[in-house]
UniProtKB/TrEMBL annotation:
Belongs to the major facilitator superfamily. Sugar transporter (TC 2.A.1.1) family. The keyword Membrane applies. It comes from Actinidia rufa. It is a multi-pass membrane protein. One of its GO terms (cellular component) is plant-type vacuole membrane. The chain crosses the membrane at residues 43-62, 74-92, 98-121, 133-157, 163-185, 563-585, 597-620, 626-651, 663-684, 690-712. GO terms for molecular function: transmembrane transporter activity. Residues 7-718 form the Major facilitator superfamily (MFS) profile domain. InterPro entries: MFS_dom, MFS_sugar_transport-like, MFS_trans_sf, Myo-inositol_Transporter, Sugar/inositol_transpt, Sugar_transporter_CS. This is Tonoplast monosaccharide transporter2.
C-alpha cells in the first residue's frame, strides 16, 4: 500500500498550503495596515483577510462539477498553479487593490484543494487505511500553520519586517506541489473507470496497490458507476460443495454460486438462506438496542450490524476467501481456462467490433473474465452474435498465469467484502427463457456461532474439519452496467455496456434526487453546518486573550518580545499542540471508526465550553480563571482536531456515488464555506450583544445537537469500500421511506 500512502501525502500538500496561508495572513495583516494606512478603514482591512474566503466559496460552487467532467488531477494542478501565481502577485503588490486580486486567486486555490483533496484520497486509498490517509489533510494543514507562524514570528523580530516576503514565500511550497501534481500524482482510478478508460485505471490501480492482479477492485469500480437501483439484503451459507446439509435448507442448483479456488480440488459453494437476512434485521448484539431508539435512522442500524459481524480477530482482511480465485460461476459447471471476451472473439473473426472508445482501451492481457463463461440453457439457444458496436463483457485478469499460482484476493474488495455475480434464468411471458446477471457483495458475519468447525480452508494450510460452514450477508442487485436492451441482441456472456458508453451521459441532476444520494446529502450537509457552529472559530479568536490572562504575554514581554510577536508565538504553540492529537486520530480513525470518535470527543467539547462559560461568569481569581481557561482551550483544540475537525470531510468524501461524488462534495464544501463566513462575521456582533460567555454557551448547545445528530443519523463507514457504502445508503434510504409510510 506504499503507493497509495505516498500519493495521499503528496496530495495533502494542498492543505498544507491552505494552513500556511491562513497563518501567514494573520501575521502579515499587522504590517499591511501600517503600510497602506488602513487603521481608519477596518472594512478594507477585513476584506484583505476575507478575500481568500470569498474566492474559496466562489470556486467551490463550480469545482465539483468540473472535477466530474475534467478529472481530479487537472483540478489539483490548477490549484497548485493558483497558489504559485497568487504568491508571486502578493509579493509584488504595489497597492491594496492588486493585493485583493492576489488574495482572490489564493482563495480559488484554497477552494479547489479543500474540496478535492479529501475526494482524491478517498478514491485512491484502500478501504482498510482510507480513514488514516484522509486525516492527512488535517495534519498537513495544522503543520502548515505551525511552520508559517514560526516563519512569521522569526520575521517579526527583524527591524523592518516585510509582509510581502511573508506572503510571497507561499510560492516555494506551491512550486513543489505543482511538480508533484504534474509528475507524480496519477488520475483517480474511479474517475478513469467512469470515463471508460479501463486500461489506464488498471495501470493506476496496479501502481497504487503494488501488485499486478487488481481484477477484483477493477470490477468493484465498474459496479460503482450505478446510482440507486433495486438492492435486496440476503443471507448466504458458504461451505464446501459437498458439506451443505438438509439443516441449511438446500435450494435449487440454479440458485447456487460455485466459488473456485486456484488449486485443484478446492471448491466452495454459496447458497442463499430462505427468509429475511439477519443483516437487514440486525437482530443480534448491539444493533437490536439501536432499533428501539426513537428517531434512530435505519441506516445507522444497518451499518452497525455489519461492523458487529466483523471477525473477532479484528482483521480487516476477509477470512471468507483469503486465497480464492477469481472465478464465480453457476453450480455444476467446471471453470474453463479458455480465454474469452467479446473483443477477443471479434479480433479472431476479423470483425470490426470495437468502438473508438473501447478500442483505445483494449488490452490483450485481460483474459479469463471474472464471470467465467458457462453454457446455460439460454445460451444454447443463442445464435453466434454479430457485431454489437461496443457491447462488452466484463474482462479481468486471471488469477493464475500459466502454471504460476499467485495467492491474491482477486475478488476481495476490502474490509472483508467479496464481489460475485450470479446468472439467473426464468420463463418469460412468451414461454422463452430470459436470463440476467445479479451482482452480489458478500460479507462474512463474525458473530460467534455463525460458523461451525474451522474458519475456512486455506489452500496449503490446515486441513478442514468435517461440517464447516460460514454465514455471509449479501447485497444483491443488478450490475451497474447491465442493460436489458442488450439482451435482445443475444450477446455471448453478460449483457453489459462498456463504461465508455455510460460516460457519454455524464452525471445528471436527477441523480441528486435518488433516495440514497439525498440521504447522504442530509448527513454531509448537516455535519458540515454543525461543525462550523461548534465553536472552533470563537475559541481560536479567544485563545490569545486566554493565554495573555495566564501570564504568557507578560513572560514574553520580559524576554523583550513585542506584543505582536508574542501573539504570533502563542498561535504557533497552539497549533503545535494540535499535531500529536491529529496523529492519534490518524491511528484510531480506522480502528475505533469515524462515528465512535465523534461520539467520544463531542462530549469533551461540550464540557470545555461549559467550563469556559462558568469561568466567564464566576470570579475565582485571576490566576484560577486563567489556569482553568487555558486548560479548557487546550483540551478543546486537542479533541476538536481528533474528531470534529477532520471527520466531516472524510465522511463527505465517502458517502456519495462515483458519478456524482464531485458535485455532492462541492455542495458540502460550499456549506462549509458559507458557515465559516457566517460564524466569522457574526462573532464580533455576538460578542457585543451577549458577551463571550453567551457565545460559548451557544456553541455548547450546538455541540449537544451535534452529538444527537451523529448518534441518530451518521453511520460508521470504517473499512468499507466506497461502492458498498453508497449501496448501503440506497438500501437504508428506502428502508427509512418504507418505515415512514408504514
Amino acid at each position: 500500500m506504499n503507493g497509495a500512502v505516498l500519493v495521499a501525502v503528496a496530495a495533502a500538500i494542498g492543505n498544507l498550503l491552505q494552513g500556511w496561508d491562513n497563518a501567514t495572513i494573520a501575521g502579515a495583516v499587522l504590517y499591511i495596515k501600517k503600510e497602506f494606512e488602513l487603521e481608519s478603514e477596518p472594512t478594507l482591512e477585513g476584506l484583505i483577510v476575507a478575500m481568500s474566503l470569498i474566492g474559496a466559496t466562489l470556486m467551490t460552487t463550480c469545482s465539483g462539477g468540473i472535477a466530474d467532467w475534467l478529472g481530479r488531477r487537472p483540478m489539483l494542478i490548477i490549484s497548485s498553479v493558483l497558489y504559485f501565481v497568487s504568491g508571486l502577485v502578493m509579493m509584488w503588490s504595489p497597492n491594496v487593490y492588486i493585493l485583493l486580486v492576489a488574495r482572490l486567486l489564493d482563495g480559488f486555490g484554497i477552494g479547489l484543494a479543500v474540496t478535492l483533496v479529501p475526494l482524491y484520497i478517498s478514491e485512491t486509498a484502500p478501504p482498510e487505511i482510507r480513514g488514516l490517509l484522509n486525516t492527512l489533510p488535517q495534519f498537513t494543514g495544522s503543520g502548515g500553520m505551525f511552520l508559517s507562524y514560526c516563519m512569521v514570528f522569526g520575521m517579526s523580530l527583524m527591524n523592518s519586517p516585510s509582509w510581502r516576503l511573508m506572503l510571497g514565500v507561499l510560492s516555494l511550497p506551491s512550486l513543489l506541489y505543482f511538480v508533484l501534481t504534474i509528475f507524480y500524482l496519477p488520475e483517480s482510478p474511479r474517475w478513469l473507470v467512469s470515463k471508460g478508460r479501463m486500461l489506464e485505471a488498471k495501470q493506476v490501480l496496479q501502481r497504487l496497490r503494488g501488485r499486478e492482479n487488481v481484477s477484483g477492485e477493477m470490477a468493484l469500480l465498474v459496479e460503482g458507476l450505478g446510482v440507486g437501483g433495486e438492492t435486496s439484503l440476503e443471507e448466504y451459507i458458504m461451505c464446501p460443495a459437498n458439506e451443505l446439509g438438509d439443516d441449511q435448507q438446500p435450494i435449487a442448483e440454479r440458485d447456487t454460486i460455485r466459488l473456485y479456488g486456484p488449486q485443484g480440488g478446492v471448491s466452495w459453494v454459496a447458497r442463499p438462506v430462505t427468509g429475511q437476512s439477519t443483516l437487514g434485521l440486525a437482530s443480534r448484539q448491539g444493533s437490536i438496542a439501536n432499533q428501539n431508539v426513537p428517531l434512530m435512522d435505519p441506516l445507522v442500524t444497518l451499518f452497525g450490524s455489519v461492523h458487529e459481524k466483523l471477525p473477532e480477530t479484528g482483521s480487516m482482511r476477509s477470512m471468507l476467501f483469503p486465497h480464492f480465485g477469481s472465478m464465480f460461476s453457476i453450480a455444476g459447471q467446471q471453470p474453463k481456462n479458455e480465454e474469452w471476451d467479446e473483443e477477443s472473439l471479434a479480433r479472431e473473426e476479423g470483425e470490426d467490433y470495437l468502438s473508438d472508445a473501447a478500442a483505445a482501451d483494449s488490452d490483450d492481457n485481460l483474459h479469463s473474465p471474472l464471470i467465467s463463461r458457462q453454457t446455460t440453457s439460454l445460451e444454447k439457444d443463442m445464435a453466434r452474435p454479430a457485431a454489437h458496436g461496443s457491447i462488452l463483457s466484463m474482462r479481468h485478469d486471471s488469477l493464475t498465469q500459466g502454471d504460476t499460482c499467485e495467492p491474491v484476493d482477486s475478488t476481495g474488495i476490502g474490509g472483508g467484502w467479496q464481489l460475485a455475480w450470479k446468472w439467473t434464468e426464468r420463463e418469460g411471458q412468451d414461454g422463452e427463457k430470459e436470463g440476467g446477471f445479479k451482482r452480489i457483495y458478500l460479507h462474512q458475519e463474525g458473530v460467534p456461532g455463525s460458523r461451525r468447525g474451522s474458519l475456512v480452508f486455506i489452500p496449503g494450510g490446515d486441513v478442514p474439519v468435517d461440517g464447516e460452514f460460514i454465514q455471509a450477508a449479501a447485497l444483491v442487485s443488478q450490475p451497474a452496467l447491465y442493460s436489458k436492451d442488450l439482451m435482445n441482441q443475444h450477446p455471448v456472456g453478460p449483457a453489459m455496456a462498456h463504461p465508455s458508453e455510460t460516460s457519454v451521459k455524464g452525471p445528471s441532476w436527477n441523480d441528486l434526487f435518488e433516495p440514497g444520494v439525498k440521504h447522504a446529502l442530509v448527513v454531509g450537509v448537516g455535519i458540515q453546518i454543525l461543525q462550523q457552529f461548534s465553536g472552533i472559530n470563537g475559541v481560536l479568536y479567544y485563545t490569545p486573550q486566554i493565554l495573555e490572562q495566564a501570564g504568557v504575554g507578560i513572560l514574553l514581554s520580559n524576554l523583550g518580545i513585542s506584543s505582536a510577536s508574542a501573539s504570533l508565538l502563542i498561535s504557533a504553540v497552539t497549533t503545535l499542540l494540535m499535531l500529536p492529537c491529529v496523529a492519534v486520530a490518524m491511528r484510531f480513525m480506522d480502528i475505533a471508526g469515524r462515528r465512535s470518535l465523534l461520539l467520544s470527543t463531542i462530549p469533551v467539547l461540550i464540557a470545555t465550553l461549559i467550563i469556559l462559560v462558568i469561568g466567564g461568569l464566576v470570579n475565582m481569581g485571576d490566576v484560577a480563571n486563567a489556569a482553568i481557561s487555558t486548560v479548557s482551550v487546550v483540551v478543546y483544540f486537542c479533541c476538536f482536531v481528533m474528531g470534529f475537525g477532520p471527520i466531516p470531510n472524510i465522511l463527505c468524501a465517502e458517502i456519495f456515488p462515483t458519478r456524482v461524488r464531485g458535485t455532492c462534495i462541492a455542495i458540502c464544501a460550499l456549506t462549509f464555506w458559507i458557515g465559516d463566513i457566517i460564524v466569522t462575521y457574526s462573532l464580533p456582533v455576538m460578542l457585543n450583544s451577549i458577551g463571550l460567555s453567551g457565545v460559548f454557551g451557544m456553541y455548547a448547545v450546538v455541540c449537544v445537537i451535534s452529538w444527537f445528530f451523529v448518534f441518530l443519523k451518521v453511520p460508521e463507514t470504517k473499512g468499507m469500500p466506497l461502492e458498498v457504502i453508497t449501496e448501503f445508503f440506497s438500501v437504508g434510504a428506502k428502508q427509512a421511506a418504507a418505515s415512514k409510510s408504514n
